[in-house]
Specification:
By secondary structure, the chain is α/β, with parallel strands linked by helices. The protein is 49% helix and 8% strand. The protein has 16 helices and 7 strands. The protein has helices at residues 2-46, 67-83, 175-186, 192-201, 208-234, 287-290, 306-309, 320-329, 335-354, 360-386, 394-404, 406-410, 423-439, 445-463, 468-478, 492-495, and strands at 150-151, 158-159, 238-249, 257-267, 272-278, 295-298, 314-317. The strands form 2 sheets. It has a 5-stranded mixed sheet with strand order 5-4-3-6-7. The longest helix has 45 residues, at 2-46. The radius of gyration is 32 Å and the shape is elongated. It starts with a helix and ends with a helix.
Length: 496
């Protein structure tokens, strides 16, 4: 009987030890995860914001000192600065290119400065010319349209010219002013209330509701052009997709905002970008654009895109920039593995820089010859190393991200016109981030939709190096009388 009790106690002790060991492992994972999180926050606060990577650039001991030690170290440095005298000899640069030349198209205003001495009877033998770039602040002026009236022969009526078409009938503002208001807000991120302050400095008092109505009416006028651009982009065979949040004033909840999203779609082949505002970030949000899409679809690992990328007529491409960021975040936790991974990614990006000027067929051939072997070896290494790390660690998450999307990460090899990452679409999203800092939120869901429309126009202008001010002026002059089935003629790449 005592022997059975003794064995039972041993089993219970063994079971308790196993449970304690599992608990210790879980706690170690939590501690490691929290340590990595703290290091990432330190890097965000004090480290470089660039995504560039150089081997050995990460110091595992960085910011490991306590605040007291850092303060003392800073004091020592200041003391040394006071006591130490630094001297050096600087070699004069010999390859200076001189001052930048000013553009030839600028208007010229000349001021002649004669010597103070008497120059009567002196012969001019030359002159010194100094070019200076100057600026005259924008000026308002009154444009008066005069239409003479003529009496027809035999007093059969009055002859007068037709009033030119205007984007907003009986509007106080001219086309150039209307386009400037939109450019200032959506390109230069200057809120309407600040623009109104500019008007006031010129003794022009325009009610805020009036300016708001101008923007709203212009949005209604330009909406068919926006829809034409949406249809052009969504029917392209290669799209990149991403999303970014925005704040929208919630009229049902006083003083609170709703978190909406701009879904952004970029056509690399047509160099066009479309912003589509949706109230949410759920699976229904991209349906307007992607429901009938067929071709190459390039996204990050967000699960909402799964319903589209798994369609037979869709080939999914993943983004190597996103994959790289996971390894970049793991540098503090597992520097050796993370550095090796980022060096492999550097290799394929170096190849992309080498082939940037080649044709699509040439790019594909070079990728298969040079990039594919690197990627095959990299993939084998990831599979082997992923078995040796904790799945919930930073490096484990980086491995899991790459493994889950590996086929999609390699899909850019199928066609030389495909891009290795989603960076162009992220560049398109940046103006929205700047806008959020200035005007904080949209006044309504309809206002957010208008913002998406104007971001579409001006983002496409940027991709084609088109001056958005000149393009919008030209559109406002033509769109009221333009045929709906030929709105593509007003696209930035076609009009300018």
């Amino acid at each position: 009987m005592s022997l059975k009790l003794e064995n039972k106690n041993k089993d219970e002790l063994l079971e308790l030890i196993q449970k304690q060991n599992l608990l210790i492992q879980e706690n170690e994972q939590i501690i490691t995860s929290q340590q990595n999180y703290i290091k990432q926050l330190q890097r965000i606060a004090f480290g470089s914001k660039s995504e560039r990577f150089a081997k050995g650039s990460v110091d595992e001991n960085q910011l490991s000192l306590s605040f007291e030690e850092l303060a003392q170290k800073d004091k020592d440095i200041k003391d040394e600065t006071v006591k130490e005298k630094i001297s050096y000899t600087r070699k004069k640069a010999s390859n200076h290119k001189g001052r930048n030349k000013l553009p030839e198209h600028l208007p010229v205003r000349e001021i002649i400065i004669n010597p103070e001495e008497n120059i009567n009877g002196l012969k001019k033998i030359g002159e010194e010319r100094t070019e200076i770039l100057e600026y005259t602040p924008g000026k308002f002026f009154k444009l008066v349209l005069i239409r003479p009236k003529y009496e027809k022969e035999n007093q059969e009526g009055v002859l007068i010219a037709d009033m030119p078409s205007r984007p907003i009938e009986k509007c106080l503002a001219g086309n150039a002013l209307l386009s400037s208001i939109l450019i200032n807000k959506y390109v230069d991120h200057l809120p309407l209330y600040r623009q109104r302050q500019i008007f006031k400095r010129a003794d022009i008092d325009i009610a805020p509701s009036t300016i708001d109505s101008w923007v709203q009416q212009l949005g209604d006028l330009l909406n068919p052009l926006y829809e034409a651009m949406v249809n052009t982009v969504k029917n392209d065979g290669y799209l990149q997709a991403d999303e970014t949040p925005t704040r929208v004033l919630d009229k049902q909840k006083k003083g609170k905002t709703h978190r909406g999203f701009y879904w952004v779609y970029h056509s690399p082949l047509k160099r066009m970008v479309v912003f589509d505002y949706q109230k949410r970030r759920n699976k229904d949000a991209p349906r307007k654009i992607l429901n009938e899409f067929a071709g190459y679809l390039q996204t990050d690992g967000y699960k909402v895109y799964d319903q589209y990328k798994n369609k037979k007529e869709v080939t999914h491409l993943a983004c190597w920039a996103h994959a790289r960021r996971y390894f970049e975040k793991a540098l503090d936790q597992d520097q050796t593995r993370a550095e090796f991974a980022m060096l492999q990614i550097q290799k394929i990006y170096a190849i992309e820089r080498e082939i940037s000027d080649l044709s699509a067929d040439q790019k594909k051939a070079v990728r298969l010859e040079k990039s594919l072997p690197v990627l095959n070896n990299f993939g084998k290494w990831i599979c082997n190393e992923s078995k040796l790390v904790l799945p919930k660690s930073s490096i484990g998450k980086a491995f899991l991200y790459a493994i889950n999307l590996w086929d999609s990460l390699l899909a850019y090899l199928y066609n030389g016109e495909l891009l290795i990452d989603n960076n162009p679409i992220e560049n398109s999203i940046r103006p929205n981030a700047l806008g959020r800092k200035n005007y904080l939120f949209a006044g309504s869901h309809e206002g957010a939709k208008r913002t998406a429309m104007f971001y579409t126009f001006f983002g496409t202008c940027k991709m084609h190096n088109v001056d958005p001010q000149k393009w919008l002026n030209s559109v406002l002059e033509q769109i009221a009388d333009h045929k709906v089935n030929k709105l593509y003629e007003l696209f930035p790449q076609n009009l300018m």
